[in-house]
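User: Show me a protein chain along with its predicted structure.
Assistant: Here is one chain, sequence first, then structure tokens.
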Amino acid sequence: MKTAPSSIDMLGRLVGFDTTSRNSNLALIHFIRDHLAELGLESTLVPNAEGTKANLFASVGPEVEGGVVLSGHTDVVPVDGQAWTTDPWQLAEKDDGNLYGRGTCDMKGFVAACLAHVPAFQKAHLKVPMHLAFSYDEEIGCLGARSLAERLVGSVPRPQAVIVGEPTMMSVVNAQNAGGGLVATFTGVEAHSSMTHLGVSAIHFAGDFIHWLNELQEELATRRRGDIDTVPGHTTINVGIITGGTAANILARECTLNWGYRTLPDGDAWEVQRRAEKYIAELLLPKMRSKHPDANITLRRRSFVPGLLPQDNEEAAELALKWTGGNRTYAVPYGTEAGIFRGHGIPTVICGPGDISQAHQPNEFVARAQMDACDAFLDKMTAWAERQ
């Protein structure tokens, strides 16, 4: 009989797939599908419109209500320009007890533990099912989770809880920030750099917009809240990517800013976008067009990740606390797919192995002790499902 892989063995296999969001995740998804097929489980794939990526869900146990959804994303962030001391696409364990590789923390560790526990789910006499739900493109706006949640909710009896396994050091999180991703495109008019009066530099006006965002960030920081344990306790703004210009001696015709913001769980998730639109329409664009009527600025929403509030998630939090042995819940400043599942009416919490401070970092790691804790969590969940 084939020996079931451990969580760490499975993590090594998953890390070996370069599922950076700009790439397809199909090789990894097909690996998971084939692995589950060997165990006698059928998977459902939910592809994107282009057919280049896919979500996957599968169920173990009886087709009844009251099951648990184990949710994780398969994509990872780039390693470009980072100073790795190990191969990011090969799992490496060091004497410090940490497991290094891209995605070990965020969040292939949780996915690996779930897959490694499937034989235990099958062996147990489950009274309620365990649903595996793995998505694409979480890192660029939870793009796959919406269709995954819709398909899963429409295909299986109503689950009792969703556990999103993002890194929380196996603490139970029941509140998260909302997040918006936007693209601002500045269109100027090209001219020789010695004749600036004849053109409009898109880059210069993009710089004005960044300066305005910095001032807005300072204003929003003055609204810091002390009654919620997200850090920092206020709305944050970040410009992540700037592209534009063709030569040092040409006024740039185009400049694009890929930027975003995160608001507190109960904050106004649309304030930053509204104020940006107002600033552009009433001040910045008129100033730009005063130099040339062909100048333009567009602001396009790229993504939105809804926040998560503790309300109506008590059932999931109570279960997760039993399985972790914890005695309190937490709030986090980052976004996950939890708000999307919560939007479908299922109590949802976040709980997974690893420290979020390691996410997106060079030499990303998850501690072996965290993987052990996740294994114990899933064991307790299995025992609970047998008693229902």
